[in-house]
Amino acid sequence: MKRVLFISLAVMIALFAASCALFEKPPLLKTVTVDATLEDWETYLYSDADNDSQWGANNEIYKAGILFDENNLYIAGEFTKEEFNNFMVIVDLSGVTGAADTSKHPWNNRKYKFEKGDVDFVIETWGDGYTAWRFTSAEAIEVTGTLASEEVDGKKRIEFAIPLSELGVTDASKLSAKAVFILTGGADDTKQWAGDFYPNQGFEAGDGGYTAPLVIKKTVSNPTK
Question: Which superkingdom heads the taxonomic lineage of this protein's source (predicted)?
Answer without folding.
Answer: Bacteria
